[in-house]
Amino acid sequence: MEICAITSDVADISAIQKADLDPIYFCELVPACPINDNGDAHFTSLEVMPKKGPQGEFDISFEYVSNNGTGTGMLAISVDTVDGIPLGDDFLNFAQPAGTYDGTIKLDAKENPDCDPTQGPCETWEPGTYTIHLSVCNGECGSNHPHSAIYDTKTTTFEITQN
Questions:
Q1: Among 52, 67, 66, which Cα is nearest to 158's?
Q2: Would you give the DSSP letter of residue 117?
Q3: In whole angstroms, what is the distance from residue 59 CA to residue 140 CA?
Q4: CA 15, CA 108: separation in Å to the nearest integer?
Q5: Could you tell me the domains of the chain?
């Protein structure tokens, strides 16, 4: 609370917003997050299971290898949908030593009954082919701030069939 009060006294809030401080870069500036500008990561696998099936839950599993370790960053996922509605999410990826890392992201590919179309388009998961893009990044994916880079991006597809 004191930091917010000091910040408000020292700088206009709109100036802070204009500074476009992404959370990872801010964490590095504090400094609370480790920086590794010599880090690396390369995807060795990206799969969706099932590869083909009706609306429902799909598991997106991945593995990447780092030879030099990674800085504080993120994993970012996006889905190219049949109807063109953009979908995506990102996850904090703590700095890691050299090694092999894996994980699974659950994708609930069925219409959300709580979606309010007045708040934006609702994905209906129509039958067709969907493309998954997964990136592992140093810093925030797509950021122009120091200590930010996309280490690697991998793409795969899955198909939703008629129920």
A1: 52
A2: G
A3: 24
A4: 39
A5: 34-160 (2.60.40.10)
